[in-house]
């Protein structure tokens, strides 16, 4: 069995941001990535959190239709 790496881009559980606000999505979602931290696909559906920019997942942020 092979392991697969992924980045969680949306969670139904709320997450607190440093400014004190909370972000929560309707569903959980993840993006599969390779060893170089790049997405394996070329399409991302739905919004992603802006925390991905802080974590240096710029390719995922650029492919997403909306960053919240």
What does this structure look like?
With 68 residues, the protein is of the alpha+beta class. 15% of the residues lie in helices and 22% in strands. The protein contains two helices and four strands; from the N terminus they run ββββαα. A two-stranded antiparallel ribbon has the order 1-4. Strands 2-3 form a two-stranded antiparallel ribbon. The protein is globular. The model has no long low-confidence stretch (mean pLDDT 94).
Helix and strand layout, with pairings?
Blueprint (H helix, E strand, L loop, with lengths): L4 E6 L4 E2 L5 E2 L5 E5 L17 H4 L3 H6 L5
Antiparallel strand pairs: 1-4, 2-3
Low-confidence stretches: none
Report strand %.
Answer: 15-25%
The neighbouring-strand order within the major sheet is 1-4
- If you compute it from the alpha carbons, what radius of gyration comes out, rounded to the nearest whole angstrom? 12 Å
What's the quick description here?
The protein is of the alpha+beta class. The protein contains two helices and four strands, in the order E-E-E-E-H-H.
Kindly list the characteristics that best describe this protein:
alpha+beta; two-stranded antiparallel sheet
